[in-house]
What does this fold into?
Amino acid sequence: MQNKILIVEDNENNRCLFRDILTFHGYEVAVASDGQEGVTLARKLMPDLILMDIQMPGMDGMTASAILKGDPATSGLKIIALTSFAMQGDREKFLAAGFYGYLSKPIRTRELPGLVKQWLEVEPV
Ligand SMILES: [Mg+2]
It folds into this structure.
């Protein structure tokens, strides 16, 4: 069975790049360009993994994630924070906010499939 991945990212280049890489690696990929669309698609598709950009116009990734985490129907979804403002302590901040993982941009495209595979396999503690 194909794993479903939802990419929520406002930057079109990134969105297409991530989609192409993950599609190439056999995943079923859906994309959203802001937090609101991301929440709607997450509820509809119940993806195995969500890659959620943090900085987006309209509804940002923190808000979208908080909505999904606060809803019992979607609270179990694995959400990875994508952020371009990599700073010391950020990772801990995002994990504390309920994100399953953290990835800082620019993403190493060769590493992305391996990371996604790991996130899909590892069960939450
Ligand atoms: Mg962004």
User: Anything to note?
Assistant: The chain has one domain: 4-121.
